[in-house]
Amino acid sequence: MSGAAERSDRSAAPRGAAAGAARVLVTRALPEAWLAPLREAGLTLDLIDQDEAPERDELLARARGATAVWVMLGDGVDAELLDAAGPELRVVATFSVGYDHIDLPACRERGVLVANTPEALTEATADLAMALLLALARRLSEGEALLRSGGWQGWGPQQLMGFDLVGARVLVVGPGRIGSAFARRVHAFEAEVHYHGRRPNPALEEAIGARFEPDLDAALVRSDVLSLHAPLTPQTRHLLDARRLRSLPRGALVVNTARGPLIDEAALVDALRDGHLGGAALDVYEREPEVHPGLVPLSNVVLLPHLGSATRGTRARMAALVTDAIRAVLRGERPANLVG
Ligand code: GLV
Question: d(Cα 179, Cα 334) in Å, to the nearest integer?
Fold first, then answer.
């Protein structure tokens, strides 16, 4: 009998567990203050005390017998991990809003609940998308590199001329919480906001006059700037493929703070290299932490190491959501931030 079949009696409804006996695996080194609510609940913590993602074998071994697992982006949670953890596992809580690294059907099949960190990181991620757009439009990385290299000869009338955001047509793909927060920022910079998603967002239209674009292909040909805020799903993988990248007007700017695989990175490199695109500002990559080697030498890109939610307050709020969820599930309650 397979591990999954052995556990097939477990329903998706949360069950109580003796908190004292519960063991929580935490897959990275974290500040004590973030862990305190788990300790106060009498839970035993098993900390993988390192900043980088554990090797897969270590993750599988350490998961064995865990009642709860606090995972990060980069920790793939699939049938193999769930079976390695075994029948005690009740909840997987991810320190992220995105959960494309978690196999939800496999969790559901085993009665393992999944929680994430919605809302806590909305404003920080929208800020970062805006910062990336401004950095790209005004060529901040190029200017700073020029200055640091010692090559700056003084003010010049045609030096590093950038892109005017006022009046630019900005297409927000994925008008959820983060996309809407980004759209509000762009509106404050007096750009014209258009958005594409599965359905209209009347609140966004009311708040800033954003215009719904039901047809992505038709919207792309008229967009000066494209910013991605959609989740990664089988349907959105390579949403921006070579054809769509080339359907953007020459000189268009692309910002991605959502998930790398939304863009075909090799096609992006080609469109940047030959000057079809004016530039790209990226916080996420197709094969993190790998960055396509074609991106690194390009001057018309801004590259960040997945910093969207990286502010002190945001990360503390995310930690509180994770610990609240773990504590709630182990008390036999359903936390508000369950996924799926
Ligand atoms: C970050 O990418 C997140 O999903 O929280």
Answer: 28
CA distances from residue 197 to 40, 142, 230, 295, 340 in whole angstroms, order as listed? 42, 33, 8, 28, 20
**Superfamily of 7-120+313-330 according to CATH:** NAD(P)-binding Rossmann-like Domain (3.40.50.720)
Q: Is the CB of 97 under 6 A from ligand 1?
A: yes
186 by DSSP, 3-state: which? helix
Which fold, 122-303?
Rossmann fold (3.40.50)
**pTM of this structure:** 0.93
Distance separating alpha carbons of residues 36 and 41, to the nearest angstrom = 9
Taking only the tens place, the pLDDT of each residue in 274-298 is 999 999 999 999 999 999 999 999 9
Residue 53 near residue 72, CB atoms below 8 Å: yes
Is the fold of 7-120+313-330 the same as that of 122-303? yes
Any ligand 1 atom below 6 A from CB of 121: yes
User: What's the confidence (pLDDT) of residue 6?
Assistant: 34
pLDDT band at 25 (very low <50, low <70, confident <90, very high): very high
**Minimal-distance CA residue to ligand 1 atom 3:** 96
Two structure tokens written together for 285: 């990559």
Residue 26 carries which side chain, given as an amino acid letter?
V
The alpha carbon of 220 and the centre of ligand 1 are apart by a number of angstroms equal to: 25
Residue 32 is classified by DSSP as H
